[in-house]
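In this section we walk through a basic example: taking a raw amino acid sequence and producing a predicted 3D structure, encoded as discrete structure tokens. The instruction is simple. Fold the sequence below.
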Amino acid sequence: MKKNATVAAALLVAGSLALALAGTGQPMSAVGTTRDITLDEAVQMAVRQNPQILTAEQEIRRTRGVVLEVEAQALPQITMGNEFAQESKNLLLDGAPPPPSTTSGSGGSSGPATGSSSGALATNNPMTQSWNVTVTASQLIYSGGQVTAAIHIAKYTQDATIYSLRDIVDTTIANVRSEFYAVLLDRAIIQVQEQNINLLGSQLKDQNNRFEAGTVPRFNVLQAEVALANERPRLIQARNSYRISKNNLVNLLGFRLPPEVLQDVPMELTDKLDAEPYEIELPVAIAKAFENRSELASARKSQDLRKEGVIGANSNYKPVVQLVGGYGARNSEFDADPGYTVHGVNAGAQFTWSIFDGFMTKGKVDEAKAQYQGSKVDVDNEVRSIELEVRTDFSNFLEARETLESQKKVQEEAEEALRLARARNGAGAGTQLDVLSAETSLTQARSTQVQALHDYDVARARLERAMGVNIMQTSQK
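The resulting token sequence is shown next.
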């Protein structure tokens, strides 16, 4: 396989954790049904279109919004209010003495006049208008560390979602590789079964010719026919497995098949099963896993988050100090002219301190401390789980490699055994049963060979996933 190219494609994923790949999927009819695909292309398609990856990218966007929301608490808050109202003057003057009215007389004296100004206003303008405009600014000065802890928690949560995306990408790449190899295996099994059918068909034809020449009994022909008939269901099963594995791969790539596509997805894979050498020692594999696995990094971020939770809970024991200032302007409700305004500034400080809350804060602190201690256990448990996974996958890889090594010459020996069995049968020194047995052994050797190649490639993919190198450039690639 072109594993260097596969890792290069995966590295593009690591560089695109800022969601550059979101929403670039193409319909299946435009990709998989019009051309063959390689393993590299399958990985890139899955990275662009896999639903779990797309969902994780949206979760990162959501946590970015949460960070902005929490950071806003530490920044100045400016609000503006505006109010306009009309009220009946009867409401304003009810129970209150009327405003003084002054009328100029001939002697310069003042006194009540027949048409007072208030009466004129009440008659001509029974409604009074009022308005006010205020601008208020506030700045949090001290909150006992609560806001700072909340900001840290939001950022740690965002980091955790990024590690979660990396974990999903790693898992998706490993699954794509495994499913890709499954399609290649089923295709190879079909070829093996077709070769076996051809061998048995030629054997049946040979026995028919010999029977017609009178050199073999009818039993030989029946035996060859039965052997051929017994192999046909295996070919049918192999073709069905091939169809199913292609559908599984298409689903993993995030495609939705068009309605005109029936049972057999018209998609061909251009790669083949191989046995590219891969050497790594167990201690190195474990060290790489501790360095690269996003689950471990996420668990550590969760531990930091829980630590900040303790600080946030303790902040309820401390006071909150806030500065407040503003500017306001309004008209006078008792003046006939709505353009007459009064305005000014105000400033002050707010100080609040919960003296006793019924031990609510103590309960929150105890809860936060317990969660923090639990997160430490989670980190330790994640370390052990990762090490166990690496050890298990490393052992499986060794088994697959040793099995593959043991099968290198088996197929050649089976082919030679079949040639000798046919030669002996033709010379009269052997039997037809020897030939059929040799053909069965050759088919089994071929099947075991392709299965060993498949198991080797899958074991390597799982080991690399356990080490977290799917999106990390390593010297082994």
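Looking at the output, two observations stand out. The two ends are 11 Å apart (CA to CA). The domain at 3-74+145-317+357-467 is CATH 1.20.1600.10 (Outer membrane efflux proteins (OEP)). In the next section we compare this with other chains.
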